[in-house]
Structures are given as structure tokens and as C-alpha cells.
Write a structure and sequence with these properties.
The complex is a heterodimer of chains A (162) and B (369). Chain A is an alpha+beta fold. Chain A contains 3 helices and 10 strands, in the order αβββαβββββββα. In chain A, strands 1, 2, 3, 4, 5, 6, 7, 8, 9 and 10 form a 10-stranded antiparallel β-sheet that branches. Chain A starts with a helix and ends with a helix. Chain B has 3 domains: 63 residues, no CATH class; 63 residues, no CATH class; 173 residues, 3-Layer(aba) Sandwich (Rossmann fold), CATH 3.40.50. Chain B starts with a helix and ends with a helix. Classes of the chains: A alpha+beta (162), B alpha/beta (369). Chains A and B meet through strand 4 and strand 5 of A and loops of B.
């Protein structure tokens, strides 16, 4: 809860500002968000990551199982998330919106990576038809961003406990 | 002399082929025919052909010059008169299709015409030989179906003249068993230009069944074209996610893995396969790779090294088709373009959906290599 509270407190401090990096730490866990715009209720975040060195010894089966739980827990984003690819050699699990959000002329989706070492990252992509996909800021309320911090934190705990 | 029925049959075939040509783009795109593929022919559903026929009216049920009425009364028109019972049907009418068989060679010719594909010029000399049966000799025994009529009668005539049984005023030649001659064959070694087609497909978690269907359809047409250009064609299949393996055709199209995407793993297996089974000096090698282009970042370097050092020099052409997944295309195709520019043997094509197959085939096979 410490990371979540601290992160929300930092967000309160930058309301009305743009292009800020918010970073909070609890022991070896660091949550960092690249905030494109912070408003009273919501923020546009282009990069959101929890880094820790506690996952250095995690194996792929633990990461896979933790990614399943993470996808179940994170059910409050625009689209449901599910594991898409697993790289056993690199010990990485990739999760994405499944299905992606289909617009008239574009598709949007979240992409999350859970890596040994380790880290949990989130970003959002948009693919216009006929163009290359680009990374776009995810617009999330303060509350949702706080929940993400808590869920990332809980995922690390789960891997360590397993 | 051509019989009437043969002429009609020929004309019917021409009509059917005309229909197929008209709709070839649809067949290329949707691949209905692939499931109906035989060894040398495919069955193609074409819309029912209307055959002109007589329609008989109801005799004695009215018409001009019959029934009641006086001179000068207007003739009744269709649609007039009291409405009958019953309403319009609610079921949609079904379109009837007829299946016609077309040989793969014919289909390839149509494909070549439609896409204006140049004929392939095989590289190098043909070093591989295969035995072919040629009917180039004569034997004393054999099946009656292979009896050599002229030689048999010539033998009979010789025999009759030598034995004094031939009467010029009554020229009757009757062969006996010993006169009979039969056509026979010899196995002749013939040089063959052979081609190996290697398909590589990404089966990682982000490739869905729709993408594989696109690959399957495109591969069918590529096979059809290449088989029409070469005597012997060998096909091999490689699937990969983070690791690659060689598989059979069925597994190739029906496997789904959840691993990550490391394209270099497929290139490695492909390189080993070429070294082991297809010496470059003897074979025309065609590689067709399909992926959604979501290669895991650090793998591009390794993939490019294998491609430039091993696969491109060994292949007639190396074609990369990037099939769009629900998440859009990855950036592998752009990275390839940046790395290799306009390399002579590398052909890139983006396939956004089924409609993109047509252009993609044209791009891949349009070089005539």
C-alpha cells in the first residue's frame, strides 16, 4: 500500500502539469510513470513500469502463473488483458488486450511485459490502418493508476511467495 | 474427324474456363478450392451455367384470337385479373453451384495470365537426373494395346513373300503370332531442373487462425505456379515461435503455440535444411516466410546476419510476407527494408487481409526468378 499511496500523493502534486516523471520507491521496488498530462481526475501516461531486482531468480513457470493472476486482477482497463506470448529463453511474458479495441479506422491495445530480473511494464499502442503502430499515452484516472501500482506490487509478492 | 459431342464438350469447357477466369481474383482471395484439391486437379464451384431451353405454354388456355370478346377489345395483359392466394416466400433463394474440375497446370496458366507473371528462368545448369520412360524400342512380346500395326504387317508381308504365299493379284496379308511386333520402352536418364520451396511461418501466440488461413491460401497459389514451372518440386515446412522445427504440411497449417517470436530460430533451421538436403548448385531454392512481424527486439540483429550470410545467397528469391494480426503489423518488415534496401533476392510484401493475397502473390512471383 505504501507504493500506491506515495504514487497517488505524487500525482496530486503535479495536477495541471505536463511532461513530468513520477517515481516512488519502497525498498528495492521502484514505480515510475512518464506523465504526459496530469489533470484533476485523470492522467495521460506513456510509460508505466515497476522495477525491482527481487525477480532475478524467477523462472518462467512462476512468471507465467503470475501473469495469469495479474490478467485476472487487472479487469478495470478498457479491454481485458491476457497472456499472448511467452519467451522461455528470455524469461519474459507478454500480455496484451484481448481482443484489442476496434475503432472505425484504428485498433488500440495495452501491452504489458513481465520480465525476470525484473520488471512489469505497461504501455498502450494504436494502429491506424495503413500505418505503422505507434505508442500512445494511456489515459487513466488517478484511482485506476493507483490500483495498477497495487496490482504490480502484488504480482511481485506472488512470484516471491511461490 | 471431330465428333459433334466433342465439339460441344470443348465449347462447354471454354465457357467454364471463361467463368473461372472472370472470378479468378475471388478464388485467389478466398481459396474455396483448396479443400477440393486432388493430386493433379482441383474442383472449383462455379455459379450454375444457364443452358437455353424451350418453355412450353398451356395449350388451349387462352391467348390472342381465342376465347370471349369482340373485335376491337384490348388483349389482356399479364398481371391483370384477381389476385391468387398465398404471399411472397420468406426464405432466401439459394444460388446453385456446379463443381468443375480444372487441372493444376491450367489453373497455373490462368494465374499467370491474370497476374501477368513472367515465366521463371531457372538458375544454373540442371545437375540432377531422373529416369523417364521413353517408348523408343520394339519387342516380340507385349500387350495387344501396344501392338505396332505397321511393323506387324510388314513382317507378315516379308514372311509371305519369302515363303511364296503372297499373291500380287490377290494382295492378302494375314499376320500370325510370330509376325507381331510391340512397342516397348527404355528408361532414359534426363537432366531435370528442380526446385525446393521452403515455407517458414510464425506460429507464436499473436498469429491467429485467420492469419494462418491467409498463409495457406497464398501458399496454395505459389505452389501451383512453381509446380507449373518446374519438373520436380520439393516442399518443406518450418514453424517457429521462439524455437523452430521442421514439420509436415498438416502440422504447418494447424499448429498454434504461445511462445515468443524469434525469427532467427527459423532462419537457422532453414539454413541447416538447405545445407543438408538442397545443395545450392543443384537446386533452385525458394523461401517464403510469413509472420506478423512482432519479432522480439533483440533478435533482429541475429536474424539479419543469417539472412545476409546464408539464406539470401542460397535462394533464388527470399520472400517475406507480413500478415496483419489483430494487433496490427510489427516492424520487422520495416527493419528488413532498412537493412537490405533493394536487395535483388529479397522481396517484401504486406498482407493486411485476404484481399491483399492477390497483390502479394504478384509481388512475390513477378520477378520471374
Amino acid at each position: 500500500m505504501k507504493l500506491q499511496d506515495e504514487f497517488l500523493k505524487e500525482l496530486q502534486a503535479i495536477i495541471g502539469q505536463a511532461n513530468e516523471t513520477v517515481s516512488v520507491a519502497d525498498g528495492s521496488r521502484v514505480v515510475r510513470g512518464q506523465i504526459e498530462q496530469c489533470e484533476l481526475l485523470a492522467v495521460a501516461v506513456s510509460e508505466f513500469v515497476l522495477k525491482t531486482n527481487e525477480l532475478a531468480g524467477a523462472d518462467i513457470s512462476k512468471l507465467e502463473s503470475a501473469s495469469q493472476s495479474l490478467c485476472k486482477r487487472v479487469n478495470y482497463l478498457l479491454e481485458p488483458i491476457s497472456p499472448i506470448e511467452t519467451d522461455a529463453d528470455g524469461c519474459v511474458v507478454q500480455m496484451r488486450s484481448n481482443p484489442p479495441l476496434q475503432g472505425d479506422n484504428s485498433r488500440c491495445y495495452y501491452e504489458l511485459f513481465l520480465r525476470r530480473g525484473g520488471s512489469i511494464e505497461l504501455c498502450r499502442y494504436e494502429k491506424q490502418s495503413g500505418a505503422a503502430r505507434v505508442s500512445v499515452p494511456a489515459t487513466l484516472t488517478h484511482e485506476v493508476l493507483g490500483r495498477l501500482v497495487a496490482d504490480f506490487d502484488a504480482t511481485v509478492d506472488e512470484i516471491l511467495a511461490s | 474427324m471431330v465428333m459433334e459431342i466433342e465439339r460441344d464438350q470443348h465449347r462447354f469447357k471454354q465457357i467454364v474456363r471463361g467463368r473461372i477466369r472472370e472470378n479468378l481474383r475471388k478464388y485467389i482471395t478466398h481459396g474455396e478450392m483448396i479443400g477440393r484439391r486432388g493430386r493433379d486437379v482441383v474442383s472449383i464451384p462455379v455459379p450454375q451455367l444457364d443452358v437455353p431451353r424451350f418453355r412450353f405454354g398451356k395449350n388451349g388456355s387462352g391467348g390472342v384470337g381465342q376465347g370471349d370478346g369482340d373485335v376491337g377489345d384490348p388483349v389482356g395483359k399479364p398481371g391483370e385479373g384477381p389476385a391468387g392466394a398465398g404471399g411472397a416466400g420468406s426464405e432466401p433463394g439459394s444460388e446453385h453451384f456446379m463443381e468443375v474440375e480444372v487441372s493444376l497446370d491450367e489453373l497455373a496458366a490462368m494465374l499467370g495470365d491474370e497476374l501477368e507473371l513472367p515465366r521463371i528462368e531457372p538458375k544454373g545448369a540442371a545437375n540432377i537426373t531422373a529416369d523417364k520412360s521413353k517408348y523408343n524400342s520394339i519387342r516380340q512380346t507385349g500387350p495387344e494395346s501396344l501392338r505396332h500395326f505397321k511393323r506387324t504387317y510388314l513382317n507378315a508381308l516379308r514372311r509371305q513373300i519369302s515363303t511364296g504365299n503372297y499373291v500380287p493379284d490377290d494382295p492378302c496379308v494375314i499376320p500370325v503370332k510370330g509376325d507381331k511386333q510391340y512397342r516397348s520402352w527404355n528408361d532414359v536418364p534426363q537432366p531435370q531442373v528442380n526446385a525446393a520451396v521452403i515455407y517458414l511461418m510464425d506460429v507464436s501466440g499473436s498469429m491467429t487462425d485467420d492469419q494462418k488461413e491467409i498463409v495457406r491460401t497464398e501458399a496454395f497459389w505459389i505452389d501451383t505456379w512453381l509446380a507449373s514451372q518446374y519438373e520436380g518440386i520439393k516442399k518443406r515446412y518450418i514453424i517457429h515461435d521462439a524455437v523452430a522445427k521442421e514439420v509436415d504440411e498438416n502440422t504447418f497449417y494447424h499448429t498454434r503455440e504461445s511462445g515468443g517470436t524469434r525469427i532467427s530460430s527459423a532462419y537457422k533451421v532453414c539454413d541447416e535444411l538447405i545445407k543438408r538436403d538442397f545443395p545450392v548448385e543443384d537446386w533452385n531454392i525458394y523461401c517464403f516466410q510469413f509472420s506478423d512481424g512482432d519479432n522480439w527486439g533483440d533478435d533482429n540483429r541475429q536474424a539479419f546476419d543469417l539472412l545476409s550470410d546464408r539464406l539470401l545467397p542460397a535462394s533464388n528469391i527470399f520472400c517475406y510476407g507480413q500478415v496483419e494480426s489483430p494487433y496490427g503489423s510489427g516492424d520487422f518488415i520495416d527493419a528488413l527494408g532498412k537493412q537490405f534496401g533493394d536487395h535483388d533476392s529479397l522481396i517484401l510484401s504486406e498482407i493486411p487481409d485476404k484481399d491483399g493475397i492477390y497483390q502479394s502473390i504478384k509481388t512475390f512471383l513477378g520477378k520471374g526468378k
